[in-house]
Structure formats: C-alpha cells, structure tokens
Amino acid sequence: MYNLPNILTISRIVVIPVIFLSIYIHSTLWSILAGVLFVVASITDYLDGYLARARNQNSVLGRLLDPIADKLLVVSALLIVVANNLVHPLSYIPVIIIMCREVLVSGLREFLAEFHVGMPVTRLAKWKTGFQMTAISMILLKTLPLIGYPIGVIGEGLLWIAGILTFITGYQYFQKCLDYVCTVENNKKNPVKQMEEEVKKIAVKVKKSVKNAMEKTTNIPSKKREQKSKNVSKKIVKNKTNSPQKKGRKAKTSATRKTVVNQADNPK
After folding, report:
1. For the chain, how many helices (H) and strands (E)?
2. pLDDT at position 257 over 80
3. Are 81 and 139 in contact (CB under 8 A)?
4. Where are the domains of the chain?
5. How many CB atoms lie under 10 A from the CB of residue 13?
C-alpha cells in the first residue's frame, strides 16, 4: 500500500491546504509558492501512474485515491483562481463547466458502479486533464515579475480550451450512461432480449472459466499430455479385459460351447 506511487498520490492531497492558503495570504511570494506547488503536484499526477505501471505496483488504494486527488486539486485551484480574481469574469464560464463536469462524472460513476459497469477514461479526457493542469499552473504563476502577465494570458486561453474539452467529455460520459439506461429499460419491456442478455452473460462466464482451465493445462507439455492420455487409455482397456465380470463371461461361453459339442457327439 505504501509504495512510491501511492505516496505521490497522497502528497497531492496533502499539498492542497498549503495552496489554498493563498486565498488568505495576499503576497507575491506566497502566490508564487502556491503556483510552484501546483506545478509539482500536476507532475506527480503523471509520475504516479507511470511508476505504478513500470514497477508493477498497481494497488486498490492507488486506484481509489488517484481520481479523488485529481478532482480535489483541480477544484481547489479553481476556487483560488476565482477568489483571487486571477482571471477575467468572463472566464468564470469554463471554471463553472469544469467544476460541474467533475460532479456529473462522479455521480455517473457512482450510479454505474451499482450495476458493475465501468466507465473507462478516454484519450480526450486525458488531453482535457493536461490542458486543465497547464492552464491553472500558468494562471497561478501570473504574479511572477516580468513574465507573469503573458503567462497568465496564455493560461486563460488554455482554460477556455480545457472548458470546451471538459464539456465534450462530460457529454460523452453522460451519453454512454444514458444509452445503458435505455438498454436496461428496453430489456425490461422485452423479456426475450432480457433472456438474450442473461445468456450472453452466462456464455461470457463459461468462456472465461474454460480459458482459465486451458491456461492451467498449458503448463504441461503437449507430448507428455498425449503420452499420459495413451497410458490412461491402455490401463482402462487392460482393466476392462482383466475384470472378473469379463472372465466370468468367458468361462460361461466356454462351458456352453463344451455342452453343445458333447450333445452333438452323444445324441440321445
């Protein structure tokens, strides 16, 4: 549980209160510190997933905390941006879209989890996260001397791009959830389709069990398996031939043959 990827994920949650203090501490130095901490936290968002895959350290705790840490970090940073008037009031629109989308997707995931249906992250959603992190980092570093203002303007433009991508991905997730709900409702109305779905689920389970059984048997070489099956079949044939029932049958048939021969030689 306490491996390096999980520690990086937890560090993103721990750093949020420090960044959030920039709302109350109005100084250039503290604003720069908040921006730098957010940049570092954004980098750890990439590093923890990369290290988990490279070191084969995927864990249940990491899968639980990673999306939570991302949402807490982004929402907290957006609140700081709005509270400190770091963007134009018109740019509050993408901020609201991003925050509403996070609530929407969390609700959809919770709903689909009851039916054991996953909602995988799309490639466009990853691009959206990258634009969000970059835009917020630039806006928080707006107080830097000399280069701060142009960086803030670029960050505000990227925030609008992130807002558009956020709206698109949110609509895609909502459409997938709506399609699933419509499918379930149609299956309830049509019992034949419902039976087909149940049969498909059972077939998938049987296929998985057969596949697992085949994977277990692949550990034995094919020649050895063939030789083993031949030996087993030979033993079965041998046991059948040497069984007492077969011996008794042979004795009975030989006795009947003798009586038939004696009757033929000594007719009454």
Report:
1. 10, 0
2. no
3. yes
4. 4-202, 227-265
5. 16
User: Which residue type does 108 have?
Assistant: L
- The dihedral built from the CA positions of residue 9, 11, 17 and 20, taken in this order, carries a sign that is negative
Tokens representing residue 247 in the block = 């011996």
How far apart CA 54 and CA 49 sit, in angstroms, is: 9
d(CA 85, CA 54): 41
The answer to whether residues 42 and 7 touch, using CB atoms and an 8 Å cutoff, is no
CB 177 within 8 A of CB 112: yes
Give the residue, 114 or 34, on which the prediction is more confident: 34
Backbone angles phi, psi at 83, to 5 degrees: -65, -35
pTM for the whole thing? 0.66
**Domain 4-202 fold:** Four Helix Bundle (Hemerythrin (Met), subunit A) (1.20.120)
Give the Å distances, CA to CA, from 235 to 101, 127, 240: 69, 65, 8
Q: Do residues 1 and 61 lie in contact, with contact meaning Cβ atoms separated by under 8 Å?
A: yes
